[in-house]
Amino acid sequence: MSDDIAFKIQLGLILPKLKDKLAPDLTEIIKELVGIVSAGSLDEDEAFDLAPIKEIIMKDLEIFLDKEILPPIQAELTPPEEESAEEDAAEEAPAAE
After folding, report:
1. Based on the number of CB atoms within 10 Å of its own CB, is 42 exposed (0-12), middle (13-18) or buried (19 or more)?
2. Are residues 2 and 42 in the same domain?
3. 56, containing H or E segment
4. What are the boundaries of the region Disordered (predicted)?
Protein backbone atom coordinates (compact mmCIF):
# COMPACT_ATOMS: atom_id res chain seq x y z
CA MET A 1 0.00 0.00 0.00
CA SER A 2 1.37 3.38 -0.91
CA ASP A 3 2.21 5.80 1.88
CA ASP A 4 -0.24 8.34 0.44
CA ILE A 5 -3.19 5.92 0.50
CA ALA A 6 -2.27 4.66 3.97
CA PHE A 7 -2.11 8.25 5.22
CA LYS A 8 -5.53 9.08 3.74
CA ILE A 9 -7.05 5.96 5.31
CA GLN A 10 -5.48 6.85 8.65
CA LEU A 11 -6.75 10.44 8.64
CA GLY A 12 -10.10 9.86 6.96
CA LEU A 13 -11.22 6.54 8.37
CA ILE A 14 -9.29 5.32 11.38
CA LEU A 15 -8.64 8.48 13.39
CA PRO A 16 -12.21 9.81 13.21
CA LYS A 17 -13.60 6.44 14.31
CA LEU A 18 -11.10 6.19 17.16
CA LYS A 19 -12.06 9.69 18.24
CA ASP A 20 -15.79 8.93 18.17
CA LYS A 21 -15.69 5.47 19.72
CA LEU A 22 -12.65 5.37 22.02
CA ALA A 23 -11.66 8.91 23.02
CA PRO A 24 -14.08 9.36 25.95
CA ASP A 25 -13.33 5.97 27.54
CA LEU A 26 -9.59 6.15 26.89
CA THR A 27 -9.51 9.67 28.34
CA GLU A 28 -11.10 8.40 31.55
CA ILE A 29 -8.61 5.50 31.77
CA ILE A 30 -5.68 7.87 31.30
CA LYS A 31 -7.04 10.36 33.85
CA GLU A 32 -7.32 7.51 36.35
CA LEU A 33 -3.75 6.42 35.61
CA VAL A 34 -2.51 10.01 35.98
CA GLY A 35 -4.28 10.23 39.33
CA ILE A 36 -2.63 7.05 40.55
CA VAL A 37 0.84 8.05 39.37
CA SER A 38 0.59 11.63 40.60
CA ALA A 39 -0.62 10.44 44.01
CA GLY A 40 2.69 8.64 44.41
CA SER A 41 4.68 11.75 43.50
CA LEU A 42 6.64 13.38 46.30
CA ASP A 43 6.94 16.82 44.72
CA GLU A 44 3.53 18.44 44.13
CA ASP A 45 5.02 21.62 42.64
CA GLU A 46 6.80 19.76 39.84
CA ALA A 47 5.13 19.75 36.39
CA PHE A 48 3.62 16.37 35.59
CA ASP A 49 5.26 14.58 32.64
CA LEU A 50 2.76 12.68 30.51
CA ALA A 51 5.48 10.89 28.50
CA PRO A 52 5.66 7.86 30.85
CA ILE A 53 1.85 7.65 30.86
CA LYS A 54 1.82 7.66 27.06
CA GLU A 55 4.46 4.92 27.03
CA ILE A 56 2.40 2.74 29.38
CA ILE A 57 -0.79 3.26 27.37
CA MET A 58 0.93 2.54 24.04
CA LYS A 59 2.35 -0.73 25.39
CA ASP A 60 -1.04 -1.69 26.81
CA LEU A 61 -2.78 -0.89 23.52
CA GLU A 62 -0.31 -3.09 21.67
CA ILE A 63 -0.88 -5.95 24.13
CA PHE A 64 -4.64 -5.44 23.88
CA LEU A 65 -4.54 -5.57 20.08
CA ASP A 66 -2.28 -8.62 20.06
CA LYS A 67 -4.37 -10.58 22.58
CA GLU A 68 -7.96 -9.44 22.13
CA ILE A 69 -8.56 -7.84 18.74
CA LEU A 70 -6.24 -9.36 16.15
CA PRO A 71 -6.55 -13.11 16.97
CA PRO A 72 -10.29 -13.33 16.20
CA ILE A 73 -9.79 -11.38 12.98
CA GLN A 74 -6.88 -13.63 12.00
CA ALA A 75 -9.04 -16.68 12.75
CA GLU A 76 -11.72 -15.36 10.40
CA LEU A 77 -9.14 -14.84 7.66
CA THR A 78 -7.45 -18.22 8.13
CA PRO A 79 -9.38 -21.29 6.99
CA PRO A 80 -9.64 -24.06 9.57
CA GLU A 81 -6.98 -26.78 9.25
CA GLU A 82 -9.53 -29.56 8.66
CA GLU A 83 -11.09 -27.84 5.65
CA SER A 84 -7.67 -26.98 4.29
CA ALA A 85 -6.50 -30.60 4.65
CA GLU A 86 -9.69 -31.86 2.98
CA GLU A 87 -9.23 -29.41 0.10
CA ASP A 88 -5.61 -30.51 -0.33
CA ALA A 89 -6.67 -34.17 -0.39
CA ALA A 90 -9.42 -33.41 -2.93
CA GLU A 91 -6.95 -31.60 -5.16
CA GLU A 92 -4.43 -34.46 -4.97
CA ALA A 93 -6.99 -37.23 -5.70
CA PRO A 94 -7.69 -36.33 -9.37
CA ALA A 95 -3.98 -35.89 -10.01
CA ALA A 96 -3.33 -39.47 -8.84
CA GLU A 97 -5.77 -40.95 -11.40
Report:
1. exposed
2. yes
3. helix 51-64
4. 74-97
